Please model this.
Amino acid sequence: MREEKIVITINEDSSLDVKTDGIKGEACISEVETLLEGIAEIKSGKKTDEYYQKVSQQNTIKIQNKG
Model:
């Protein structure tokens, strides 16, 4: 499983830069909103390529023919 992380940089003007890594799709926005809830307000954002990657959870089932 790939590591998921959120990196927050506090700028000199007290604004925050937030970047996610390893979190795809809408989950990245949701995670940042949850983390910053009650602390900071998101005023703008830029979606990275990772945001647009498909999130898939696949279950693999092996079937063996008895014959």
Summary: The helical segments are 26-36, 49-52. The chain has a mean pLDDT of 78.
